[in-house]
TrEMBL record, chain A:
This is Peptide/nickel transport system permease protein. The keyword RNA-binding does not apply. It is found in: Cell membrane. Signal peptide: none annotated.
From TrEMBL, chain B:
The keyword Mitochondrion does not apply. SUPFAM superfamilies: MetI-like. This is Peptide/nickel transport system permease protein. The chain crosses the membrane at residues 12-30, 97-121, 142-161, 167-188, 220-253, 273-296. It comes from Kribbella caucasensis. Its main location: membrane. It is found in: Cell membrane. CDD domains: TM_PBP2 (cd06261). Residues 95-292 form the ABC transmembrane type-1 domain. GO terms for cellular component: plasma membrane. It is a multi-pass membrane protein. PANTHER family: DIPEPTIDE TRANSPORT SYSTEM PERMEASE PROTEIN DPPB-RELATED. Keywords: Cell membrane, Membrane, Transmembrane, Transmembrane helix, Transport. Signal peptide: none annotated.
Length: 297, 311
């Protein structure tokens, strides 16, 4: 844009300092910062099997409790002589796998239930809304703990439990969005053209709301990773000796009094960086999606 | 009002029943036998059967459930397997600790999060606000058990300013409370900012400003007053959730509350104690939410007038 195209007194500098422009810039900052934080964790975790790392399960007994930056062990070792970096990266694979599977499941479940409740209304809406309310009043972590403690801490059980814990959020948002979308002329047009109700929902309504719903589902990844680590911490995670983030911290907690602070602090930083990255990225994307929606109508 | 109150009370009872039933079924359907934890070491099958009979676990699930509900109606919520005393007693011994922690945490949260959220809303889209925004996102990104450990390492182990665990002196509450507050402040302040943002941009505010109302009054007397219902609701919900056990924080700091109790009971499969803990905390949490609902007419005259108009 050239200066000539801008109305007289409002120069380019003023425009750049306007609230709208600043808001756009800040969402870009959040997206980049988030991508960097998440990338720092996700990329090494994804490459854990390729990188030249020591075995995460079997340690070297003469290299126990080494502090970070010891030769050969960048982040040090635990009392069993296992390399902490290797354990964090391999543990991250389990934690991330559970998180991704859980949000995929809760996303599909939530969007489908929310769309059905919003479009059909009536008794479908009543059932879905009552279920959402009932779940809100349950003590969540306690129930998750109960199920995992009783049915065994395997990857499918933990994934399922987290997915069930998380479906309300995308469901509620999708329902609200569909309620608005349902009244728009294009839906009436599709009805006049004789399209089936399922087809209208899947082909016409969902594509219009998907970007907003998906951002919320993506933000759930942060919650899922935190929940999984909390469960592992309470002993209801994937079983030892296989590392998970919460499990590593839980193992380290008896030891930090003896001065082995790195066993607790460093895995926590990995979780916090990843979750912060996902949250920032999701928050920035949400601002952007909302604005795009506002511009195109 | 009484009709509304009765309906809410009915919903509360229904939710409590629903929760208790789910917990009861989950416990009975899960694999594993609690009797093994309470029989002598290397038990014979007769000894196991005797324990099962003593706890009533040899009955069919349906009759166990009916017995349980029948006893509930008479105010008997079961006898703990491990403590061999009424489960209600065991829970009530622990409850004051959880309530103390929850009250302290919610008070500090409200005192910090509300001014922070209002400030963020008034400074919307400026560089300091972006900083605070990212800080609150960071606050909700850290695992709470990890925050607890880091605080322990810094203040209890290295500086030795504060006790690390248990509840022996008043200073023991500082670290657990701080751990909870970090996350809660992040959540509540963002909610306050969102609600305030809507009201600060509303036309009535512009009109009030043009009439010369002071900025302070515009912020607190106009915009915040109109944002207070969602904020109070959120604080109430958070407080209620804390009563359900600040499980993780209690485990980290060995705080003798109900959260720690239930984790312990789970590992020993102490069915009556688990059921009792869930029942008591859920009923308490529901009562808190009911109270918050009843506060609405006091906070917001629109609700009050709406109710009078309906009469």
């Amino acid at each position: 844009m050239t200066d000539a195209a801008v109305p007289s007194n409002v120069g380019r500098r003023l425009l750049r300092r306007s609230a709208a422009a600043r808001k756009a810039r800040y969402s870009t900052i959040k997206i980049w910062l988030g991508a960097i934080c998440a990338g720092i964790v996700i990329i090494p975790v994804a490459l854990a099997r390729v990188l030249p790392l020591p075995d995460p399960v079997h340690g070297v007994l003469k290299e126990t409790s080494l502090p970070p930056f010891s030769p050969g062990h960048l982040l040090g070792t635990d009392p069993n002589g296992r390399d902490l970096l290797s354990r964090i990266l391999h543990g991250g694979q389990t934690s991330l796998l559970i998180g991704l599977l859980a949000i995929a499941l809760s996303g599909v479940l939530g969007i489908a239930a929310g769309a059905a409740a919003g479009y059909f209304g009536g008794w479908v809406d009543t059932i879905v809304s009552r279920l959402l309310e009932a779940q809100l009043s349950l003590p969540l972590l306690l129930m998750l703990l109960l199920v995992v403690a009783l049915f065994g801490p395997s990857v499918p059980v933990i994934t399922l439990v987290i997915a069930i814990a998380q479906w309300p959020e995308p469901a509620r948002l999708t329902r609200a969005l569909v309620l608005v979308e349902r009244e728009k002329p294009y839906v009436a047009a599709a009805q006049v053209l004789g399209l089936g109700r399922i087809k209208i929902i899947v082909r016409h309504i969902i594509p219009n709301i998907l970007s907003q719903s998906l951002v919320v589902v993506f933000l759930l990844l942060a919650q899922a990773v935190l929940l999984e680590s909390a469960l592992s911490f309470l002993g209801a995670g994937v079983q030892r000796p296989y590392p998970t983030w919460g499990g590593i911290i839980s193992d380290g907690r008896e030891l930090f009094v003896t001065g082995a602070w790195w066993l607790v602090t460093i895995p926590g930083i990995a979780i916090a960086l990843l979750v912060l990255g996902v949250n920032l990225l999701g928050d920035g994307l949400r601002d952007r999606v909302r604005r795009a929606k506002a511009v195109t109508g | 009002m009484p009709r509304y109150f009765l309906r809410r009370l009915g919903q509360t009872v229904l939710t409590a029943w629903f929760t208790v039933t789910i917990v009861f079924l989950l416990l009975r359907l899960a694999p594993g036998d609690p009797a093994a934890n309470y029989a002598p070491p290397n038990p014979t099958s007769e000894q196991l059967a005797a324990v099962r009979q003593e706890f009533g676990l040899d009955q069919p699930i349906l009759s166990q459930y009916l017995t349980y509900l029948g006893n509930l109606l008479q105010g008997d919520i079961g006898t703990s397997f491990q403590f061999r005393q009424p489960a209600l007693q065991v829970v009530m011994d622990r409850l004051p600790y959880t309530i103390t922690l929850a009250v302290a945490a919610i008070a500090v949260t409200a005192a910090v999060a509300i001014p922070l959220g209002v400030w963020m809303a008034r400074r919307g889209n400026t560089a300091p606000e972006l900083g605070a925004n990212i800080a609150t996102i960071a606050g909700q990104s850290m695992p709470d058990f990890w925050i607890g450990f880091v605080l322990l390492i810094v203040f209890a182990v290295n500086l030795q300013w504060l006790p690390s665990s248990g509840f022996n002196s008043m200073t023991a509450i500082v670290l657990p409370c701080l751990t909870i507050v970090v996350l809660q402040v992040a959540l509540i302040s963002r909610l306050v900012r969102r609600e305030m943002g809507v009201n600060l941009a509303a036309p009535y505010l512009t009109i009030a400003r043009s009439r010369g109302v002071s900025e302070r009054r515009l912020t607190w007397g106009y915009a915040f007053a109109n944002s207070s219902i969602p904020v109070v609701t959120a604080l109430g919900t958070r407080f209620a959730a804390m009563l359900n056990g600040v499980v993780i924080v209690e485990v980290v700091f060995k705080w003798p509350g109900v959260g720690e109790l239930v984790v312990d009971a789970l590992s020993r499969r102490d069915f009556p104690l688990i059921q009792a803990t869930v029942l008591v905390t859920v009923v308490l949490a529901l009562l808190v939410q009911l109270l918050v609902d009843l506060l609405y007419p006091l906070i917001d005259p629109r609700v009050r007038l709406g109710q009078e108009a309906r009469r």
